[in-house]
Amino acid sequence: MRKYSFTTQEIIDTLSANGVKASAQRMAILRFLMENRVHPTVDEIFKALQPTNPTLSRTTVYNTLRLLAGAGIIKCIETGGDGARWDYSQHDHAHFLCTSCGHVTDVDYRISSPTFPLPPAGYTVQTADIIFRGTCPACTASKAC
Ligand SMILES: [Zn+2]
Ligand SMILES: [Zn+2]
Residue 41 is part of which domain span? Predict the structure, then answer.
């Protein structure tokens, strides 16, 4: 997986470019999502950040994620079952949810592709949330004999 790293200034700039005031906790949560492209749940983010942010609460993480999503900085992926995943992404992409291990992988797609299903003329598309469900290569391999 590609490694990402951002400076404090880049985190502040990302927040302010989207009209969000920077705070230590907002920066910590956004940095985590920008640097860890693993589509974490609220719980995973909370557990990862709590040791270095002892005053952080699960509620703060959740509220911050909703704020960042509302500002268009991150996206909420409704995977059903074990709760929503959160994703920092600058390009549209679909997701593949492995129903066996729960891992979420990015899937590239082009909305301009002739085979892409689009609503009829007159409907303006703003976003598309596409989730494929099935078994990832690792889980498929572990089931093979
Ligand atoms: Zn899997
Ligand atoms: Zn993604």
Answer: 8-85
Dump pLDDT digits (tens) for 107-136: 987 767 777 778 899 998 877 788 999 999
**Quick check: 56 pLDDT over 90?**
yes
Residues having C-beta closer than 5 Å to ion ligand 1: 98, 100-101, 136, 139
122 C-alpha to center of ligand 1: Å? 39
Angle (CA) 19-88-60 rounded to 5° is 65
For residues 15 and 70, membership in a common domain is answered with yes
Q: Is residue 76 in a domain? A: yes
Over the Cα atoms of the chain, what is R_g? 17
Q: Are residues 106 and 130 in the same domain?
A: yes
C-alpha span between 2 and 8 (Å, rounded): 20
CA distances to 11, 15, 52, 76 from 70, rounded to whole Å, are 17, 12, 26, 10
What value, to the nearest 5°, has the Cα angle with vertex 26 and ends 131 and 129?
15
CA angle 114, 119, 123 (to 5 degrees): 125
What are the tokens at 44? 């995973």
